[in-house]
Structure formats: C-alpha cells, structure tokens
Amino acid sequence: MITYPRYLDRQSETHSLLIGLGNAGINIVDRLISQTGFPMESLAINTDQQSISNTLASKKISMGQMTTHGLGTGGDPEIGLDAAKESAGEIQRSIVGANIVFICAGLGGGTGSGAAPLVAEMAKQNGSLVIAVVTSPFSFEGRRRSQQAASSLREITRFADAILHFENDRMAELIEPHAEVRETFAICDNLLFRSISSLNRIVTSTGPIPVSLPDMLAVLRHSDDSCLFGCGEAIGESRGHHALETALRSPLLDRGRLLHDAGKLLVYISGPPSLSMAEVSEVMREISNNLSPSAMLHLGVSATQDHSSPLTVTIMGRCGTGKRTGAQPKVTPDLTPLAQSQPTPPPASKPQQAEASFFEMPLAPTAHPTEKPAAPKVQQPLLPLDPVTRGRFDKIEPTIVEGEDLDVPTFLRMKLKK
Amino acid sequence: MAREKIHVGLEIGTTKVCAVVAECRRDGEVRLLGVGESPSRGVRKGEIVDFQNASNCVHDALSDAEERSDHEIKSVWLAVTGSHIESSNHRRSVNIEGGGEITEKEIEDIASKDKEVSLPKDNDILHSILQQYYVDGREGVIDPIGIGGSKLEADYHIIHGVVNRIQSTIRCVRKIGIDVEDVVVNSVASAQILLDDQKKASGVVVIDIGGGVTDYIVYHNGVVRQSGVIAIGGDHITNDLCIGLRIPITRAEKLKIEEGSAILENLSGAEKITLKNDTGFSGKEIDRSMLNHIIHSRLHELFLILRNRIQEVVPVHLLGSGIILTGGCSLIKGIREVAESVFEVPVHFAHAQSVTGPTSAFDNPQLSTCIGLVKYAHAVDADAPQESFFNRFISSITRKLHLI
C-alpha cells in the first residue's frame, strides 16, 4: 500500500503546477489558459525559443540554450534529454513547492519524449504527486517516432503516479474520417484539455463523496492499457442523463462501447448545490447497467457553491486487459429472425439471464457475488448508445426508468441483455 | 325533468384532441351529447411542444364538439398528463383538543395539511386523495366524526406535477377564449367512469396506454394506492417499427394500426406483409414475425415496469378485479394476452359504466378519459352545495390560484 500522507489532508492548500513540455504540451497549456482562465500556475518548457515567447504560461523556461542554441531538437530525444539536463537547475527551482505536478507533453518528438521522463523524476524527488498527460504520435508519422514515444512512455511510467495516455491514432480513427485536419487536432486537444481540468477538479474536490487519491491512482497507474476518458456537462431537464450521454460520446469511450471493457472505472459527478442523490443514482445506474460485472467502480461526487454551474459527469478508466481493444471482432449473429435487419450487430454477451431480470440489475456491479468474473475475458457487446436509435424522440426529453433510456426500441435493448 | 348541468371534458392527447359534451344525471348516469375530435399536432409524450399548433387543434376539436352537441362551450374540465406527474403516499396527524371527540374541525385541519407535504420546488399538488383515518393508531376508520381519541391520523395519496408544464396546457385552452374549470390527472379521470365501488374494493388497476404516455392508477380496499405516468405509448411502438423495419414513420403508424399484433404464438415464420409503394416510398415486404416481435417486446417491457410499480404497494395477485386496459393502444391485437402473461390476473378492456347517448362512441377506449372528466365534474358539483356560496367562491379562487 502506498501512502500519500501529504495530500490526504484536503484541508491544506494544494498547490498545483501545470507544465507544458515541447510544442504539443505548450499548445495544451495555452488552450487551458485561454479557454478557462485556468486557476493553477503554469510553466512552459521548450527548446524552441520562438514558441516559448508566444505562450500564455505564467513561467517560461527556454532550456538547453547551449545544447540547441534555441533552435529546437530536430526530433531527437537525446538532444531533448541533454537540453533538460543542462537546464535542470532552473527547472528544479520552478517546480519546487508544488504538491501536484501535471506534465503535458506530446511524445514522439525531441523535447517532449526526451525531457518528460527527467522532469517527472525531478518532480517525484521533490515529493510532488506527478500526473502525466501525454499523447502518442499518429502511426503515419513513422516507426521511429512511435518507438521514441513508447520508450519515453516507459520511462515516465517509472516516475509518474498517474498517467493519462491518449493515442492520437485511436482518437483520429474514432473521429469522423472526413473531418478537417484542424478539426481533428482541435478535438484531440480539447479532450486533453478537458481531462486535465477534470483531474484538477477531482484532486481538489472536497466531497460529499471525495475521490481518495489512492482510488484515483489505482485507476490511472498503469500506462500499457488504453485509457478511457469521457466528460460531459448539461443543465436543465434530465441533465444527468444528457451529461452522461455526452460523456459516453467521447471517442475515447468509443461511443460508450468500451465501458464494457473497463476493468477499473472512476466516475466523478459534480454539480450545483441542487444536485440530488436521485440524479447521482440515476447516472450510476445507467453506467453500471453497461459495465462488466467484474469491473471495479470508484465514485466521486461534489457539489459546488455556484448555482449556475452545470452538472458534469467525468468517466476515467482503463480497459480490463493489457491489450488494445481497438478493433472489435465481428460477433456471432443471433439466430432469431430479428437479427437479420437489426441496425447494430447483436452481440452475445453476459451469461444467460432470464428475460425479465434486467430490471433488477443491481446498482453496483460488485454486488454480484454469484456471477463469477469472466476469467478469460468474454468479448462484451457493442452498445447502441448512438443517439440515432432514439428515432423521433431524439430531440425531446428522454423517458428514463430504472436507468434505461426507454426511447431506444425495446427489441434492441433486449438483444443486448439476453 | 329539468336538465342537469352540462359539462365538457377536454383531453389534449399526443395523437388526438378529444372533447366530450355530456350531462350527468342525478343517478350517476352520463348522457353523451356530442363528441368532437381533431388529430393532434405539437404534442409529444402528452405535453405541448408546439403551442400554436396545439392551440389550433384544441379549437378544431371544441368547435366540432359544439356543432355535434348543439351546446355552446364556455368552459372545460381539462385532463393533464406527462412524465412530470408523480405521486406519493403520506401520513399526517393532528392532536385532538378538548373533550377528545373528533369533530369536523379536526377533519378540516387534517385535510388542510397539504402544504406540509415536501415536494420538489417546481411542483404543486394536483390531487390530494384521502385513503384512510387512524384514531390513536387504530387503522381502517372510515368516518371518524364522533369517535373519541387523542390523536387523529390520515393517509393521503398526493398527486403532484410541475406547475409550469401544467400551466402551459391550461394556457393553450385559455388562448382561444375558453375557461378551464379545473385540471384533472388522466388516470383519476378515467377511473371515475371505468370503476365502480365493488371493483375499487376488491382491487383493480386501470392502465391507459395512449399515444405518448401510459397513465395508471391502482385501487385496493376502495382507495387509491398508487398512480403515475410512464412516458411510453403508441408512438414508441411506431418508432420501434420505423427503426426495426426501416420504413418511414407515417408508414409505420399505418402498419401498426392495420396489421399490428403482439401475438407470438402460431407464427409461421414465413408470412410476409407487403407494403404498397407510395409517394417517397418504394414499397417493401416485411416479416409478420418481426412485426409481432417488435410490438410484443415493447408491450411486455411496459407491463413489466408497471408490475414493478404496482408491486410496491399491492401484491398483484391480490387485485381481485384484475387489470383494465384502455387508451388507443389497447386496440392492438394480442395486448390482452401479453398483459395476462405478465400480471397473471384477469385483464379486461374498458367498458364505460353506465353511459348512454346518441353516439356509439362510449365503448371507444380513446374516450374514457374525457367521459371520466364529466363524471368527475359532476362529483365535484355534487359536493359543492354543502358549502355556502361564499365558501364556494373562496375555494374556487384558491383552486384556481393553485393551478394558474
């Protein structure tokens, strides 16, 4: 058991520091600052003097003046590492005193891949909690960059307490294929940006149900699985449902389908003071209906003082196995005649249950002692969470009973439960 | 014989707007004078989403009813529904002062405790229905006046809804210059006409499956035990068919009415239904078995949800008079078999009690709510003379302030 005595005391002032490393990292930091007026201190570190002069970050370090002469690394992580070593003293001075350090970097290039492990190590030695938010390159950027990213990620894993790892490939393949390049990058950046701001909220939240740091770290510790992340917010009628729906629509949850693969899941719900227990339980019920029975679920709930703030649902997690789940295998077709014209492929899923029993699904999947965890992982079904299946009820208030969106045709939902 | 007062019941449904003009005789018999109908537009799941369109439909239905009944409509009794309408059971108590004998004052005190019920802040009470009294913890007291004791308690069934959403329905009627006497929840109205005391005593559930929503009300031991609205109706079946069979929504609606059936037995598997081509639709052949499966699973699910809700207050097998189905959707073939398989008690179709009139409409399940409204109006009128004129004036004002 790892203990974090310094941070468990939530009354004490947390001092977080956001570090943008390299061009990609600085992009995210700038976006965070410009879009939200981000409350935490920020530090931009780069080898390229030009990019550093334009950033909005409150502190800037142009590292490796002697190594690179302010001209960047040319994509070589060795040079990135040398530059970081050269400016180690300066970096050290800037990060000391922060008890939570977020490191943002795009891996695969020179500065990010080279310097991120060193910065993480220094932060760790200062006794900070280190959370790395990194992206890995597109595969079309070449094998070399992928390898550089992979080895850098391994290094970071040694020092970081938590890693959110976003694969550009996976994001791009899940975003509309014909989306404009700019749009694709904007969506990727936006996801990173959302994830950091929600992480910061989670770490600093006070409850009623706070997420303990060990819980959060348990969910985010390992880097070798695909990361699941989704975040949505909504106001007004049935805001819980709408926020969840937006969160599930995240490409990193594959429109909600990957929930089934989640081994560990952290759900964080925050809202205005009017946030009710019924809303929380409705959201949780909807999520746990879609989870695999063996999944571990952590819940955090907080209510802000601000009456106008929306209800936000954040889902973070990891897939249950160490494997990528990018391509879902084709599922065996169902034998009933209905299957022939069914819009979504009908997958065989959980152990057979009586037709009626899905109404009595327990709130928490862990309350299923009789159902043994699927040891060789059963392929979980695709969920028709795509809003299209609501047909003519798309735009109006959904009918939610016991955590089910009843506007989705029954026969579609039944297929998935049986 | 002098004519009894004529009442008008209006229901703004998801599929159609119905207005019923009828007089209620002293013996409780309802005589229909005329029925006006208009297909509904701008209503989804029992609530108005397009104000102008809905208002026009109300106007059409009311003028149709005026024409057929030869009666000028000035005010209506309005049925309301929608998923925001909820209910709960409450117990409240008063201490008995003085000589320990319960008088009308205590009864009034206990009845006026509506305000103490905690509701969501946007909601207000639509109906507060007495279930039973307790005197010093002794249950089953029907008329406590004159009984001695130190504490009087009463169970109430409270039906409440979101004020704004009810107001928009009222406004829709007011807009065309018609006054709204009072609003009544759909299920309460239907029960007025479909149930008699014997049924209420032995236990019965009225399930009204309309176009957009399903209203239900549970009676046991002569009192309302549970009521509510589930926003599922015939539209959902149409939508399911549209998605499942990949046909346009208008075609799906027509198919549901003409061929729709929930019977799964004796399906040959090969039987096809040919849909003729139409403007913008090239025609299609569909499997009968698929059609039935889709309808069956939707209805089966709906009944399961209802059964769970009923089970919360009364074990279903104790419902001596079983289930009564009404509403437009109850016309679907095989629905009774599905309901019987889920509830395992006898299922009947609505037959309006003691209705006479020139129209043959009174066996139409789509009208039971409207006819019920008239009966409800009559019951309210029958209560009224006990109050003095002044009191009645006051109470009608408070009633309206309550709702407007």
Please outline the helices and strands:
The complex is a heterodimer of chains A (418) and B (404).
Chain A: H1 5-8, E1 16-21, H2 22-36, E2 41-46, H3 49-54, E3 59-62, H4 65-68, H5 77-86, H6 88-95, E4 100-106, H7 111-125, E5 129-136, H8 143-159, E6 162-167, H9 168-174, H10 181-204, E7 208-209, H11 213-220, E8 227-234, H12 239-248, E9 262-271, H13 277-290, E10 296-303, E11 311-319, E12 400-401, E13 404-405, H14 410-417
Parallel strand pairs in A: 1-2, 1-4, 2-3, 4-5, 5-6, 9-10
Antiparallel strand pairs in A: 7-10, 8-11, 9-11, 12-13
Chain B: E1 6-12, E2 16-24, E3 30-39, E4 43-44, E5 47-48, H1 51-69, E6 75-80, E7 86-95, H2 104-111, E8 123-135, E9 138-141, E10 151-162, H3 163-174, E11 179-185, H4 186-194, H5 197-202, E12 204-209, E13 214-220, E14 223-230, H6 234-245, H7 249-259, E15 272-275, E16 284-287, H8 288-311, E17 323-326, H9 335-343, E18 347-349, E19 355-356, H10 368-383, H11 389-403
Parallel strand pairs in B: 1-6, 3-19, 6-11, 12-17, 17-18
Antiparallel strand pairs in B: 1-2, 2-3, 4-5, 7-10, 8-9, 8-10, 12-13, 13-14, 15-16
Biggest sheet strand order of chain B reads 11-6-1-2-3-19
Q: Label the structural class of chain A.
A: alpha/beta
| Order of helix and strand elements from N to C terminus of chain A | HEHEHEHHHEHEHEHHEHEHEHEEEEH
CATH topology of the largest domain in chain A: Rossmann fold
Distance between the termini of chain B: 37 Å
Helix amount of chain B: 25-40%
Strand content of chain B: 25-35%
Structure explained in plain terms:
The complex is a heterodimer of chains A (418) and B (404). With 418 residues, chain A is of the alpha/beta class. Chain A has helices at residues 5-8, 22-36, 49-54, 65-68, 77-86, 88-95, 111-125, 143-159, 168-174, 181-204, 213-220, 239-248, 277-290, 410-417; strands at residues 16-21, 41-46, 59-62, 100-106, 129-136, 162-167, 208-209, 227-234, 262-271, 296-303, 311-319, 400-401, 404-405. Chain A has 3 domains: 13-204, Rossmann fold; 227-319, 60s Ribosomal Protein L30, Chain: A (2-Layer Sandwich); 337-368 and 377-417, no CATH class. In chain A, the strands form 3 sheets. In chain A, strands 3-2-1-4-5-6 form a 6-stranded parallel sheet, with helices on both faces. In chain A, strands 7-10-9-11-8 form a 5-stranded mixed sheet. In chain A, helix 2 (22-36) packs across helix 10 (181-204), helix 5 packs parallel to helix 7 (111-125) and helix 7 packs parallel to helix 8. Among the domains of chain B are: 86-160, Dna Ligase, domain 1; 196-350, ATPase, nucleotide binding domain (Nucleotidyltransferase, domain 5). Chain B has 11 helices and 19 strands.
